[in-house]
Every structure is written in C-alpha cells, then in structure tokens.
Amino acid sequence: MAHGSRLVDLVHERIEGFLAERTSILREISPDLEPLDAFSRRFLSGGKRFRALFCYWGWEAVGARGFDPFAPDGGRDRFPIVSAASALELFHAAALLHDDIIDNSDTRRGAPSAHRLFEQLHTESGWAGDGSEFGRAAAILLGDLLLGWSDELLDEGLAALPDRDAARAARAEFMRMRTEVTAGQYLDILEERAWLSQPESEQRLRAERVIVFKAAKYSVEAPLVIGGAIAGATTAQFDALRAFGLPLGIAYQLRDDLLGVFGDPEVTGKPSGDDLREGKRTMLIAIARERLSPGQRRLLDELLGDPELEPEQVRMLQRTIRECGAVDEVEALIASNVATAMSALDDAPLSRDARAELGSLAKAVTRRTS
After folding, report:
1. Domain count, the chain
2. pLDDT band for position 30 (cuts 50, 70, 90)
3. Do 52 and 11 form a contact (C-beta atoms < 8 A)?
4. What is the CATH number of the domain that holds 69?
5. The pLDDT of residue 323
6. Domain, as residue range, for 255
7. pLDDT above 60 for 169
8. DSSP string, 249-281
9. Does the pLDDT at position 226 exceed 70?
10. Coil, helix or strand at residue 220
11. Is 285 left (phi over 0), alpha (psi -120 to 50) or beta?
C-alpha cells in the first residue's frame, strides 16, 4: 500500500493548497468569515480517505502505469487524479456536514459537529437570537461552500487532462454521483418517517435501496469509476469496476450500520447506539423486525428514534437485536457481498497490482471498527 499511503499525503497537500487559495478570498471579504476557514480545515484534516484511495486505484487499475508517486517528475501526470481524489474528499465533508444537521448529531469523529461548533461560537460571542438556529444555518452554508469547492477542485484537475473525452466522462460520473447521493439521503429521511405506511414485505428492499444510493455508490463505486474514467477506461473496464464496487459498497455500509448500533464510542467518535436514537431504518432494523415477536417488534418501533433513550434502553435494544439473529444475518450479508466483489476481480481487464490493492482495500473497509 506504499502508493496508497503516499496518495493520502498528496491528497492532504492538494486540499491544503486549494483551501489556502479559496479561503484567501474569504479573508478579503471580511475577517468575520474566519470560522468558515477554520472549520473547513478542521473537517478536512482527518478521515480514512477511502474514497480518494478507491479513486486512485480505479485510475491505476485501468492505466496500469505503475508510476512512482514519490518521483519528483510525476506531478503533471498525477495532477488530474490527485485533484479528483481530493475533490471527492471535499464532497464527502460537505455530505457529512449536511448529514449531521439532518440527524441532529452532536459529534463527528469524536469532536463537536459543525453546527454545534457554530452554536458554541454564537454562545461564547454573546450574539442575539437562538444559538442552535445560527449553528444549523451556518453549517448548511459551510456544507454548500465545500460542495461548490469540490466542483472547482475537480475541474482544475480535469482541465489538465489531455484526453478531453476522459475528462468529460469523469465529470459526468461525478455529477451522477452527486445526484444519486442526494436522492439516497432523501430516501433515508423518508424511511425514518414513512415506514409505518409501507408494506412490511417491502421494508428490507427499501432499506437496501437507501444503502445503494446513499452510501454504496458514492463511497466505493463512483470513486472507482471516476478514477477509471480519468485513465480512459473501456466499457469492459467500467463494467469490472462497477461489478467490484457496488457489492463492496453495500458491504461497507452494512458494516457502518452495525457500528451505528454496536460501535465503541471511544473508537467511532459517536455515542453508543446513535442510530437507535436517530431512528435509522437500516437493513439491520429491517431484518430484526422480521425476526422479532410481535411484542418485541412493537417495543422496538416505540423506542426507535427517541433521542432521549437512556443507556439501559440502548443496551436492551442492542441485546434484542443481537439475540434475534439479525447481527449474524447482516454479517453473512457482508461476507456474501465481499465474496461477490472479490470474484469480480478474477480475470477482470484491470492491472494485476491494482487488483491486489483493491482486494486489500476490500478487507480494510469491511473489517473496520470506526
């Protein structure tokens, strides 16, 4: 993973340089905009950079360049892919900011979420009005700013790509990803509120639809395909990247769903059982509802989505979900989807080194603890 590790450094450098350029505009407008600068850097300084890595290995899988990211003369060749990988990280940060507002989450990666930071700024500054309203409004604007900047960063990279057809294909995939993840986010909040009026028989299917469009495509499949597009992928290569990326993305999100209920808060940076308090209608919950007795199902439905759940109530729900076999079934689904993804790499028209690295990434994203 030497290339991948170096890519993370290159992405960090590219993001820092880009933010320095853009935030200088903010400082020219007014010193009052300094929090937008500080908070944008804060939310882009960490993370696992999985989307950036998938983008890079989609590019390498198609191009089979085997180039050395450490080489001092490789900057021009790698500029488009590093810029695209960095743009995905900005897009991800924007999505997280908006997601935290929608879910009313207090924390992100073990620290206050953006809207809580802005609320704290309001309180400490002694400003007029409601601090929570200011926090939400300011965080929405910061998310919008990062979303726009992700477009600019992508376009800067694609402008340096000699193959204009490849640039257009990469841009089209990025725009499709943006539409799909927004649609998936809407479907997610819809399920939290409309589940009662939907047929019981469709709830697993509807949960899977949210997984695919809110997370699986934009977390794994789209970054792979964007990277492949920049390298000038053929139809067969696009098909191989998608055949690997979609099932792996589903497995990735299923792991996230388990962590949202059972994750260690010291590792995840989120309170234990956070998805239970937020009322997430995940595949885990859909499977549990199928397996629970009518009385247990009524209790789950009554408590799910209560932001004031006590720790003992969270532990009780965790036991109920685990004991009914839902966790084991989700683990089996994760394993099945990973196997499907890995089989798609067999004899795929992709570089051998990239296939090996994608296999390693598949393990990393589905066995993680945060």
Report:
1. 1
2. very high
3. yes
4. 1.10.600.10
5. 98
6. 2-366
7. yes
8. HHHHHHHHHHHHHH--HHHHSS-TTHHHHHT--
9. yes
10. helix
11. alpha
